[in-house]
Design brief:
N-terminal domain of MutM-like DNA repair proteins; about 30% helix; Helicase, Ruva Protein, domain 3; about 280 residues; 2 domains; four-stranded antiparallel beta sheet; alpha+beta; about 20% strand
Length: about 280
């Protein structure tokens, strides 16, 4: 079965890390006989024939993830870049099985197994890159949420004068935080989502830095299974994982509040996350 979480609107960092581990467990060190793509113009970042020529006979030997960007090194020095868009997933299957639905890109291995890249809505992308670091630098992608230092995070944050909810979603500030993750980070750090990033105190920034690592790592450890996340995650108020918390704040003192910040649905607790008055 595909490994994506059906409750989430799109693969977030914990899902992509789960995909990375799944790929490492299933698809490494197996020569690629063929690569196919049913809509090259839309789904590929490189010329289709060139990709097929480079990938034939190559093997995956290493993986690397920054935020929601996944890179797989081949023994031909090129890296395969995968971005999972809004609905991407991976599925490793035998030649004796029917390809999964929407497996629009498939790596065929010489051992008779295949790796399908599932692209229901065609927002997903695959390409070849020479250097992941340079690729991300050109895109302006900040360090990964689990690796960014307090100093770099604080510096990136203080440059922005927008609401902290929107700023944390900006991948040039920190890589890998998606919508629900940011809500849980702000809930845990007791920061109102409309607080201006430029108004953050050192204490606020330290709390957010610690919270984002905790929220992301805990979700990775749960293999992006929301049922296994602690009761004090505010995502349960969305009805994800533990429906008994739907609409209720884990603190037990307030119904959860939903507003829009920067056009994004934002869940927070008015009891824990008060907007500071200047």
């Amino acid at each position: 079965m595909p490994i994506g979480n059906p409750l989430s609107n799109m693969p977030e960092l914990p899902e992509v890390e789960t995909y990375r581990r799944y790929l490492e467990a299933s698809s490494m060190n197996q020569p690629i006989a063929e690569f196919t793509c049913e809509d090259p113009r839309k789904l590929l970042l490189n010329d289709y024939d060139e990709m097929r020529q480079i990938l034939r006979g190559a093997q995956f030997i290493e993986t690397y993830r920054v935020g929601k960007h996944l890179f797989i090194k081949t023994d031909k020095t090129s890296w395969v870049y995968m971005h999972f868009g809004m609905t991407g997933d991976l599925h490793y299957f035998s030649e004796h099985e029917e390809p999964p639905r929407h497996a629009r890109m498939i790596f065929y291995f010489t051992n008779g197994f295949r790796l399908g890249f599932i692209c229901p809505r065609k927002f997903e992308r695959i390409g070849l890159v020479d250097d992941p670091t340079e690729f991300l630098k050109k895109k302006g992608i900040a360090p990964d949420v689990l690796l960014i230092s307090m100093e770099a995070f604080s510096k990136n944050l203080k440059r922005k004068k927008s609401a902290i909810k929107s700023v944390l979603l900006n991948q040039t500030v920190v890589a890998g935080l998606g919508n629900w993750l940011v809500d849980d980070v702000l809930y845990r750090s007791r920061v109102h989502p409309e607080t201006l990033a430029s108004d953050m105190t050192k204490g606020d920034i330290a709390a957010i830095h610690a919270a984002m690592r905790y929220i992301v790592q805990t979700t990775i450890d749960a293999e992006a299974n929301y049922d296994l996340l602690p009761d004090d995650f505010i995502l349960h108020a969305r009805g994800w994982g533990k429906p008994q918390f739907s609409g209720k704040c884990p603190c037990g003192k307030e119904a959860i509040t939903m507003i829009r910040v920067g056009g994004r649905a934002t869940y927070f607790c008015q009891n824990r996350q008060k907007l500071k008055q200047k």
